[in-house]
Amino acid sequence: MKQQQILDARLSDWRKLIRALHARFLTGDFAKGLAFVTAVGKAAERAGHHPDVNLTYSFVDLKLISHDVSQVTQRDIDLARQISEIARAQGIESNPSGLAEIELALDSADLAAAGPFWAALLDGGFTGDDVVAPDGRLPSLWFQHTDAHETPRQRFHLDLWLPHDIAEERIAAAVAAGGRVVYDDEAPAFVVLADPEGNKACVCTFLNR
């Protein structure tokens, strides 16, 4: 599903991060969270489509993606709407600003050589430019194509995926904390930041990709 279709769906509780739709619902206590998850489970069974669920004491995180095609589809949009309706009926608010997803990025001049090693080490599937853990236990690993080089340089960096309407605020906070913007020509898709010692990280959104 294309980026504009996701935006046009106007899912106020949900944000697209790396590959999937994510939402955080503030349940406030474990019993209320369990009741919410139970209701979501019944809706998922009726739809024949199931979210990934993380139930904590004070909130429930949900993730929706169509695993058969490894992307967001209309099935995810439809179930996201149903879940939001359940939350509203139970008086539960969402907190999109609490969403984030970490991806590791590795500069590689020889992806064919490096990729299988990292896939084996992380017990993940190696497709395209990514190694993805099948059960979501570990961050995904993305290979950034680069020229071969001998001089020491930062090879690993973090990609911090944020809701598109939160990223600018987080970048400003990082700059206020002593960082600097290194590259923003392709914002809001990604902005490269550096800490005071020059270590880099990217703040990424799904827009303009």
- Given helix and strand content, the structural type is alpha+beta
How many structural domains can be distinguished in the coordinates? 2
Number of helices: 5
Poorly predicted ranges: none
Characterize the overall form: globular
Mean pLDDT: 94
Number of strands: 13
Order of helices and strands: HEEHEEHEEHEEEEHEEE
- Give me the CATH superfamily of the largest domain: 2,3-Dihydroxybiphenyl 1,2-Dioxygenase, domain 1
N- and C-termini, Cα separation: 12 Å
According to CATH, the fold-level topology of the largest domain is 2,3-Dihydroxybiphenyl 1,2-Dioxygenase, domain 1
The CATH class of the largest domain is identified as: Alpha Beta
For the sheet with most strands, the description reads:
8 strands, mixed
CATH architecture of the largest domain: Roll
Helix content percent band: 25-40%
Strand content: 25-35%
Walkthrough of the structure:
With about 210 residues, this protein is an alpha+beta fold. It folds into 2 domains: about 100 residues, Gyrase A, domain 2; about 100 residues, Roll (2,3-Dihydroxybiphenyl 1,2-Dioxygenase, domain 1). Helix content is about 30%, strand content about 30%. The protein contains 5 helices and 13 strands. The strands form 2 sheets. The protein has an 8-stranded mixed sheet, covered by helices on one side. Strands 1, 2, 3, 4 and 5 form a 5-stranded antiparallel sheet that branches. α2 runs antiparallel to α3. The longest helix is centred in the N-terminal third of the chain and has 18 residues. The radius of gyration is 19 Å and the shape is globular.
